């Protein structure tokens, strides 16, 4: 049943937070320690934010569907009074949108604290975390796309989903590289070696562009279908 009730979705997100609070607390504690150990100027770095977004986000995503894979909890989780769309959106919002925003707020707060501390005690000017940076938002956009792959992996693989998803991606890229080579060779059999590699490079650029557009919606759809399949089982 594909229905969406925002009140149910809100309640489901709260349930997910309570259920996974231990995992979230451990991850939060790790972030706090890392931020405390980082040099002051790193708290204003978009690159540092991106690293923590990707690593932390993938770690949280890895455990997103633990209840669904745990036979002791699956029945209770899959019989909650909500639709499969709401189940999917809850996991998606928590591991993607909410996590990125919360980390953004934390990073900005730490950056402000660093600026104040440096101004008062060290008289050293550092840059504040720039929320208007285009590179920052491009990085978040790329995270949303890549995270959709790991969310799909978390829905399908019961254990070690990050490792298995990464291996699956590696195999997929190898197959894709072979197909691109064969396509380029068949298209231009008389091309020189440099010409062939140039054709492969152009083909790869086209695939790379398509990747960022179509991958996330496809992964989200398959993840939703996987949740529906689990409910039927």
Could you please describe the fold and organization of this structure?
This protein has 233 residues and is an all-alpha fold. It has one domain. Helices cover 81% and strands 0% of the residues. The protein is built from 9 helices and no strands. The longest helix has 40 residues, at 193-232. The two termini are 15 Å apart. The relative contact order is 0.12.
List keywords for this structure.
single chain, mainly alpha, 0% strand
* Strand portion: under 5%
| Topology pattern, helix = H, strand = E | HHHHHHHHH
Q: Structurally, how many domains make up the residues?
A: 1
Count the E strands.
0
Average of per-residue pLDDT values: 81
Q: Provide a count of the helices.
A: 9
Write a short abstract of this structure.
With 233 residues, the chain is mostly helical. The chain has helices at 6-19, 21-37, 46-62, 66-69, 71-78, 84-122, 134-156, 161-187, 193-232.
């Amino acid at each position: 049943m594909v229905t969406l009730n925002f009140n149910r979705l809100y309640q489901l997100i709260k349930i997910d937070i309570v259920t996974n609070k231990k995992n979230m607390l451990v991850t939060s504690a790790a972030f706090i320690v890392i931020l405390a150990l980082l040099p002051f100027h790193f708290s204003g770095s978009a690159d540092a934010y991106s690293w923590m977004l990707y690593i932390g986000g993938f770690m949280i995503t890895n455990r997103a569907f633990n209840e669904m894979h745990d036979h002791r909890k699956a029945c209770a989780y899959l019989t909650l009074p909500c639709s499969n769309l709401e189940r999917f959106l809850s996991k998606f919002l928590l591991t993607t949108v909410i996590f990125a925003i919360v980390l953004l707020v934390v990073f900005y707060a730490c950056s402000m604290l660093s600026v104040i501390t440096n101004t008062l005690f060290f008289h050293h000017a550092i840059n504040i975390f720039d929320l208007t940076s285009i590179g920052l938002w491009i990085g978040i956009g790329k995270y949303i796309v890549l995270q959709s792959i790991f969310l799909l992996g978390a829905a399908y693989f019961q254990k070690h989903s990050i490792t298995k998803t990464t291996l699956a991606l590696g195999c997929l890229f190898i197959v894709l590289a072979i197909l691109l080579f064969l396509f380029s060779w068949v298209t231009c059999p008389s091309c020189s070696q440099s010409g062939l590699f140039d054709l492969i490079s152009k083909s790869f650029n086209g695939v790379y562009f398509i990747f960022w557009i179509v991958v996330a919606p496809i992964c989200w759809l398959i993840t939703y279908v996987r949740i529906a399949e689990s409910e039927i089982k």
